[in-house]
């Protein structure tokens, strides 16, 4: 329980840090865009504004996900966070990438000479500092949670979208800032304002790529993903260790929230067990399972003959 609370606090720190940085950066970028006429700077302003909205949605999703279970939602509201994570991905694609690509295309068709870029460079420098700070916080927190897994593997297996969404957003933001800076410099160096429009389009394409990746990961969480294989192995080992269990047929799990798992276990009980002994053993196993895996919010153990389980679940992987 304590670990879960600490993780929530860390997630909130990452989100609030990113929100504060993006709001300040968005204002500065819009001012710089108005003064310099830079398309890529305007695009970056929209980018930061969208990111700010995304952090608000994720904080709202986290708040909604903390609601206790009720009659209508017996497994709680944890997966509501996954819904809002998916909405964030759609917003990045539709608003962030769409506006960036459109603005860049418009600027290429009707290029306008850029004024003194000094203000833009100052804003970009401050933005890199703030985004870099937010990115560093996100990287450090995600590195702690990923353990020995590789970065991409950890992102793919993560059941908490808040951490990796901020990580992707900040990475895209830093890449966008570098592209915007190069676009402004090249536009002045080669006296061709269309280059600034090309920079906007490139920023939009980066946002579109990030949105597609986030949508893919969020969709998997939204429709339901199993627990980590190590958790499933732990569950199987605890149940199989009981002398009253002849065989563990399968272990099916699903995350109902980042820190909440539902487990359905089919096991072949020895034939000599009485009803009362079976009930006592199930109660003991549930206690052991919750002690070993605190994220197990709901456990369902079904006595089932091995041959019956094979017929019923034919063609389905043994553990999910």
From TrEMBL:
A GO CC annotation given for this chain: membrane
Transmembrane found in the keyword field: yes
Signal peptide: none
Biological processes, Gene Ontology terms: zinc ion transport
Protein known as: Cation diffusion facilitator family transporter
Superkingdom to which the source organism belongs: Bacteria
All residue ranges annotated as the Cation efflux protein transmembrane domain in the record: 18-222
